[in-house]
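Thread: Newbie trying to understand structure tokens

Hi all, I'm a second-year student working on a class project, and my supervisor (Dr. K.) asked me to get a predicted structure for one chain before our next meeting. I've only ever worked with sequences, so writing a 3D structure as a token string is new to me. If someone could post the tokens and maybe explain what I'm looking at, I'd be very grateful. Here's the chain:
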Amino acid sequence: MASPGKKSFPLRIDPVLWAEIERLAAQELRSANAQVEFMLREGLEKRGRLLARGATATSPKKESR
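---
Reply by user tm_fold:
Sure, no problem. This is what the structure looks like when written as tokens:
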């Protein structure tokens, strides 16, 4: 069962990639699901795209030139 307030969705992923995520999650004492979420947040932060926790997503604003 999904955690309250979290979006649930199916994910198709290469079994070899999933196995590596599970190994990494075990090393970092996380569930595989928490590891995926951690890695997604980390990737977004690196791109300057992470929203504050609890913030709602909005459409990106177009830059004026």
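A couple of things are worth pointing out once you decode it. The CA atoms of residues 15 and 36 lie 14 Å apart. DSSP finds two helices and no strands in the chain. Feel free to ask follow-ups in this thread.
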